[in-house]
Design goal:
about 100 residues; alpha+beta; 2 domains; 3-stranded antiparallel sheet; 3 strands; about 25% helix; binds zinc ion
Amino acid sequence: MKQKTKQPMYLSEPTEPIVCTHCGCIDDYSTELKSNQLTARCAGCKKFIKNISYAPAKFYVGKYKGTLIADCIDKQYMIWYAEIVAKGKLKKDILKRISEL
Ligand SMILES: [Zn+2]
């Protein structure tokens, strides 16, 4: 394992965390599509949290900025990105993508 590098300032918070207003769970939810609107449901208390935007996950910073996670085949880069930059849902999407390669 490489030593963890400190996260640069400009890489902070690429995505908004989804917080359950009922039990306080952070980024612990499942999604479901309801009349073309993607909704987040808490994995802890199973209550509806909020509608979330239905945008495919992509890189917000770095050399693949604007590239869809689903289109990226650079596994090493995604491992780094998931470890250092990505949080919450984005991180899950990247880890899922890594596991598919
Ligand atoms: Zn909850």
